[in-house]
Design brief:
single chain; 79 residues; mainly alpha
Protein backbone atom coordinates (compact mmCIF):
# COMPACT_ATOMS: atom_id res chain seq x y z
CA UNK A 1 0.00 0.00 0.00
CA UNK A 2 1.45 3.30 -1.04
CA UNK A 3 0.43 6.73 0.16
CA UNK A 4 -2.95 8.30 -0.40
CA UNK A 5 -5.17 7.90 -3.40
CA UNK A 6 -5.32 10.57 -6.04
CA UNK A 7 -8.66 11.36 -7.64
CA UNK A 8 -7.99 9.35 -10.82
CA UNK A 9 -6.50 6.42 -8.89
CA UNK A 10 -9.52 6.34 -6.60
CA UNK A 11 -11.86 6.33 -9.57
CA UNK A 12 -9.97 3.37 -11.04
CA UNK A 13 -10.62 1.25 -7.94
CA UNK A 14 -13.61 -1.02 -8.15
CA UNK A 15 -16.00 -1.21 -5.23
CA UNK A 16 -14.91 -4.67 -4.14
CA UNK A 17 -11.22 -3.79 -4.38
CA UNK A 18 -11.70 -0.61 -2.32
CA UNK A 19 -13.87 -2.45 0.22
CA UNK A 20 -11.36 -5.27 0.62
CA UNK A 21 -8.47 -2.85 1.07
CA UNK A 22 -10.53 -0.84 3.57
CA UNK A 23 -11.18 -4.03 5.58
CA UNK A 24 -7.43 -4.69 5.60
CA UNK A 25 -6.70 -1.13 6.76
CA UNK A 26 -9.22 -1.44 9.60
CA UNK A 27 -7.73 -4.77 10.70
CA UNK A 28 -4.25 -3.29 10.74
CA UNK A 29 -5.42 -0.31 12.79
CA UNK A 30 -7.29 -2.54 15.25
CA UNK A 31 -4.32 -4.88 15.64
CA UNK A 32 -1.99 -2.03 16.52
CA UNK A 33 1.75 -2.40 16.56
CA UNK A 34 2.25 0.47 14.13
CA UNK A 35 3.94 3.77 14.73
CA UNK A 36 1.92 6.94 15.03
CA UNK A 37 3.02 7.97 11.54
CA UNK A 38 1.98 4.58 10.08
CA UNK A 39 -1.34 4.74 11.90
CA UNK A 40 -2.04 8.21 10.53
CA UNK A 41 -1.19 7.05 7.00
CA UNK A 42 -3.48 4.04 7.40
CA UNK A 43 -6.27 6.27 8.72
CA UNK A 44 -5.92 8.63 5.75
CA UNK A 45 -5.92 5.70 3.32
CA UNK A 46 -9.02 4.32 5.03
CA UNK A 47 -10.80 7.66 4.65
CA UNK A 48 -9.99 7.71 0.92
CA UNK A 49 -11.16 4.14 0.47
CA UNK A 50 -14.38 4.89 2.34
CA UNK A 51 -15.01 7.81 -0.05
CA UNK A 52 -14.45 5.53 -3.06
CA UNK A 53 -16.93 3.01 -1.64
CA UNK A 54 -19.45 5.76 -0.92
CA UNK A 55 -19.17 7.07 -4.52
CA UNK A 56 -19.78 3.55 -5.87
CA UNK A 57 -22.77 3.02 -3.60
CA UNK A 58 -24.23 6.45 -4.39
CA UNK A 59 -23.83 5.74 -8.12
CA UNK A 60 -25.48 2.36 -7.78
CA UNK A 61 -28.36 3.93 -5.84
CA UNK A 62 -28.82 6.61 -8.52
CA UNK A 63 -28.86 3.99 -11.28
CA UNK A 64 -31.36 1.88 -9.36
CA UNK A 65 -33.59 4.88 -8.66
CA UNK A 66 -33.44 5.88 -12.34
CA UNK A 67 -34.31 2.37 -13.48
CA UNK A 68 -37.23 2.18 -11.07
CA UNK A 69 -38.50 5.59 -12.17
CA UNK A 70 -38.55 4.75 -15.89
CA UNK A 71 -42.15 4.43 -17.02
CA UNK A 72 -43.21 1.66 -19.35
CA UNK A 73 -40.71 -0.94 -18.17
CA UNK A 74 -43.21 -2.67 -15.90
CA UNK A 75 -45.93 -4.75 -17.48
CA UNK A 76 -49.31 -3.32 -16.58
CA UNK A 77 -51.72 -5.69 -14.94
CA UNK A 78 -54.79 -6.39 -16.99
CA UNK A 79 -57.90 -5.59 -15.12
Amino acid sequence: MSGTTTGSEGAALGYEQARDELIDVVRRLETGGTTLEESLALWERGEELAKVCRRWLDGARARLDAALAEPGDEPTPSG
